[in-house]
Amino acid sequence: MSLWGTLTGKKASSTPTVASSTSSSAPSQDTSPTTTFQSTPFDPTSAQDVSSFLGNTSLPDPSQLHPLAGLNQQTLDYLSLDESALSDLPGSRSALPSRGWSDDLQYGTGVTYLSALTLGGGYGMIEGLRRTPASAPPKIRLNSVLNSITRRGPFLGNSAGIIAMVYNGINSTIGYYRGKHDSANSVVAGALSGMLFKSTRGLRPMLISGGLVAGAAGVWTVMRKTLF
Fold it and tell me: Is the Cα torsion angle 53, 57, 63, 65 positive or negative in sign?
């Protein structure tokens, strides 16, 4: 017993030391692998390139992805839309292909409105330049020109657009009941639409407006026969 054990009152450990003879007496085990792995050498000629992959017959056919793929087109019933057919009335041929009164209304009104708007704007620009003295500052001249353009252009464009809408409506109605489009339809439709436009101004303005619009319609029919 040591001195420290005597002072502290601890007893010495009587557990005998067991010699690790088990590990020495145990038979040795063979840890070497039973089979040997050998990698096969790489052959570059056996690798597949891109062309062989894309040309594989197992890939799906893109044409089969269409919704109508596999259907017999000879037995399909197609819809016949009458709205896509052009107008077959005599004299209905014009500058643009027309399917009926709706196309005439859109084309005629749009072209007439834009043409009148351009002419009115040009007239307003000339009027604004004439009213402003040459010695005026550039800002004043520009302001005068813009005021004249915005006053003349929209007024003439809106007036001509309204007349064109009424004219195309009356002309299509007359052509529908008569079964053809000719010069008489255009002149009568122009006279009626012009008179209706000035119907609130009295008899004389009505006759003047009707005569002007009828004359313009007559000129248009002559140009259409000559050019188209």
Answer: negative
Residue 228 banded pLDDT, cuts 50, 70, 90? low
Six token digits for residue 61: 């056919």
Closest alpha carbon to 92 in 192, 198, 168: 168
If pLDDT is split at 50, 70 and 90, which confidence band does 162 have?
very high
Residue 147 burial (CB < 10 Å; 0-12/13-18/19+)?
Answer: middle
Give the closest residue to 223 by CA, choosing from 103, 111, 82: 111
Burial-class residue 40 by CB neighbours within 10 Å (0-12, 13-18, 19+): exposed
Under 8 Å between Cβ of 197 and 219 = no
Query: What is the chain's Cα-based Rg?
Result: 50
pLDDT digits (tens, 9 = 90+) for 58-99: 566 767 777 767 666 666 666 555 555 555 555 555 555 556
d(CA 185, CA 189): 6
